[in-house]
Write a structure and sequence with these properties.
The protein is α/β, with parallel strands linked by helices. The protein has eight helices and ten strands.
């Protein structure tokens, strides 16, 4: 998959390893995925970096599904970004909203500036933002490299029409990563819409009720994308 991405959203080191073995060419590491996902432990970031050369992006989010921050939360975000940079991660996944649902450009630009030279993905705060065209423009203006989105819907199947709009409006100025409900069965249709980066956890609940990546779910997606490319 030289030009296309299967990004495994991994809830743990174990899930990341499964995703890599299944053929994912990028990992987004987080924890507490069952709650929506938060920043992983520093020790896990270092451990994963030390065991793989696969590109690693880290979710930076202090509280799951909370995208407007107190000063203390923002300070922690900056600290986490710096840690990831020093740990030689390839990218971070960040974002900020104002209380009215618009993109907080000041905070986002500060995050992007601190993150360089790592890649920066704006996370699914976009999917709950207001005025999606304005939000997309703001994210591009903040110099984010990529946007993770379900098309502002519950899942990617419901957000397909808006995904197509987002790709058209982005005009190749930003990588659009489709996420939430991506699997081998819908990759072909998303590819036809113009999506080239696919984000999925391939998750299933283990016996402890924790979401972990399942090899076959990732591998089927990898094989489907390879089939399309051929």
């Amino acid at each position: 998959m030289p030009n296309n991405i299967i990004e495994c959203c991994a809830n743990s080191i174990e899930s990341a390893i499964v995703g890599i073995k299944a053929g994912a060419n990028r990992i987004e590491l987080c924890q507490k995925l069952e709650q929506g996902g938060v920043t992983p432990n520093y020790s896990d970031i270092v451990k994963l970096r030390n065991i793989t050369d696969v590109k690693i992006h880290i979710l930076i989010l202090p509280i799951a599904n909370k995208f407007s921050y107190t000063q203390d939360e923002f300070n922690q975000i900056i600290k986490d970004i710096i840690f990831c940079k020093n740990a030689k991660c390839d990218g971070v996944v960040i974002g900020a909203l104002k209380t009215d649902g618009s993109i907080d450009q000041n905070l986002t630009k500060a995050m992007v500036k601190e993150a360089r030279p790592m890649k920066v993905t704006f996370h699914r705060a976009f999917d709950v933002s207001s005025k999606f065209e304005e939000s997309l423009k703001d994210i591009i203006d903040c110099n984010c490299d990529a946007l993770l989105t379900s098309g502002q819907a519950k899942n990617i199947d419901q957000g397909r029409k808006k995904i197509a709009q987002i790709i058209k409006l982005g005009r190749n100025r930003i990588e659009i990563i489709a996420g939430s409900g991506v699997n081998h069965a819908n990759i072909n249709e998303l590819y036809r819409l113009g999506v080239r980066s696919f984000h999925l956890s391939g998750k299933e609940k283990n016996i402890f009720g924790k979401f972990e990546t399942h090899y076959q779910n990732i591998n089927k997606a990898v094989k489907e994308l390879s089939r399309i490319e051929d």
